[in-house]
Each structure stands twice: as structure tokens, then as C-alpha cells.
């Protein structure tokens, strides 16, 4: 089993009043990938970090094996969610993968 963790910050141009809706959409869409992407076992989305955090949100996933991370990255369902609900609104991506 492997874990894939990604954190982002909102782009500066995302209006404060839009952030809650963007976070809700991201969470719903990313969690909906379980069952669509082979090897993706769990998805958790952190939308309310405490003030000491350096990023605005995090994605914490569990996959069956290391090779599933690469397959997840290019899977059409994931690409659609990332391109539609995540990438247009975020920057400063950091990632950690571990077994």
C-alpha cells in the first residue's frame, strides 16, 4: 500500500468569497474518483487546516501499489477533475508519496 499526499495554496486571484465553494467542489470530485480509478483505495480531502498550516488544502490518498500513482496521474477521470476543479484555482503544489 502507498500513500500519495498533495497540498496546494489558492491562487491569489481566487476571491475569498469563492473559496468555500471551490473547496467543496474539489472535495466532492476528488472523493468521487474512488471506484473510477483502478488501484485508488481511499481519498481524504482536508479543507480546513489550522492557522499554523502553510497550505490551504490537502489531498491524502491510499493506493494499492507504487505503480498506481503513475496510472492515477493520467487516468481520464482524474485528469478531468484536476483540470476542471483543481488546477484552475491552485498553485504552489507539493507532493509526498510513501509506502
Architecture overview:
- There is one protein chain.
- The chain contains three helices and four strands, in the order βαββααβ.
- The protein has about 100 residues and is an alpha+beta fold.
- Helix 1 packs antiparallel against helix 3.
State the shape: globular
SSE run: EHEEHHE
Provide the low-confidence segments as ranges: none
Helix content, binned percent: 25-40%
Q: Cα distance, first to last residue? A: 6 Å
Tally of distinct domains: 1
CATH topology: Alpha-Beta Plaits
Number of E-state strands: 4
Number of contiguous helices: 3
Assign the CATH architecture: 2-Layer Sandwich
- Rg to the nearest angstrom? 13 Å
The proportion of residues in beta strands is 25-35%
Strand order of the main beta sheet, please? 2-3-1-4
Biggest sheet record:
4 strands, antiparallel
Give the rounded overall mean pLDDT: 98
What structural class do helix, strand and pairing data support? alpha+beta
Amino acid at each position: 500500500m502507498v500513500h500519495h499526499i498533495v497540498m496546494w495554496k489558492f491562487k491569489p486571484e481566487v476571491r475569498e468569497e469563492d473559496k468555500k465553494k471551490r473547496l467543496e467542489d474539489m472535495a466532492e470530485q476528488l472523493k468521487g474518483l474512488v471506484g473510477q480509478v483502478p488501484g485508488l483505495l481511499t481519498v481524504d480531502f482536508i479543507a480546513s487546516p489550522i492557522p499554523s498550516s502553510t497550505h490551504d488544502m490537502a489531498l491524502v490518498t491510499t493506493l494499492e501499489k507504487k505503480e498506481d500513482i503513475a496510472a492515477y496521474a493520467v487516468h481520464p477521470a482524474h485528469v478531468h477533475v484536476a483540470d476542471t476543479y483543481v488546477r484552475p484555482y491552485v498553485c504552489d503544489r507539493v507532493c509526498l508519496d510513501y509506502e
